[in-house]
Amino acid sequence: MTTIPYPAILAAAGPIAAWSFALVLAIAALCCMIATLRSPRRPLVYVASGLLALAVVLVILPGQHAPLLFQVLIGIVAIALSVAGGGPASQVVLALASRSTVDGVHGGIVVPDRVDGQNGTREVLRGGTTIGFLERFATTGAIMAGFPEAIAVLVAIKGVGRFTELDAAEARERFIIGTLTSLVWACVCAALFRIAAG
Question: Which helix (H) or strand (E) holds 163?
Answer without folding.
Answer: none
